[in-house]
Amino acid sequence: MFSERDRQSPMQRSGAIEVVCGSMFSGKTEELIRRMKRAQFAKQRVEIFKPAIDVRYSETEVVSHNRNTIPSTPVDSSSSILLLATDVDVVGIDEAQFFDMGIVDVCRELSRRGIRVIVAGLDMDFKGTPFGPMPSLMAIADDVFKAHAICVRCGNLANFSHRLVRSSKQVLLGETENYEPLCRECYNKAMEELHNEQTDHAE
Ligand code: ZN
Predict the structure, then answer these.
(1) How far is Cα 110 from Cα 116, in angstroms, rounded to an integer?
(2) Distance 195 CA to ligand 1 centre (A)
(3) Measured in angstroms, how far is the CA atom of residue 104 from the centroid of ligand 1?
(4) Residues catalogued as catalytic
(5) Ligand 1 mean position, distance from CA 152 (Å)
(6) What is residue 79's predicted lDDT score, i.e. its pLDDT?
(7) H-run or E-run covering 38
(8) Most exposed of 47, 116, 176, 184 (fewest Cβ within 10 Å)?
């Protein structure tokens, strides 16, 4: 979990891209905040960006579910990050799954400028489908860390965000109470139950 490179390594000087991904309740935002705070301790200039769409708790702070906060800047599109990320050593990007595909080139450009980029986001949506730009970000990253939640049904490691309300929209805000983390086996069972329910209704 605590895999970070030394700042003196040649890779850091030439910039780097790190991805922290996982399901809801996996602690990925906490991990982003932890890395950003350690960079602050090292006297590095840090800045966090998040999509303006993510207004769950706060407009200007990245808030993880355990209320550990760090100031952040909401932006409407990925291109704004390039304009705003001046005089920084480390750029954090939270809820990256909600950004447009341009975020991939933005991360590449930031790393080209010698910046360490730490990206956090949901790897899959509630259907288990790769979420927005996340798969591409994982592909171009130097390092990918997959965080896991705990399955609320069996206690195993969970990597799926199971939606408790019936809606096919990919983005559902006001999230936390509408989802539960499930392991693959329990998620598959839940999907089977949903499928059976739907075919019962159709008859
Ligand atoms: Zn389970």
Answers:
(1) 8
(2) 18
(3) 33
(4) 95
(5) 7
(6) 96
(7) helix 28-41
(8) 176
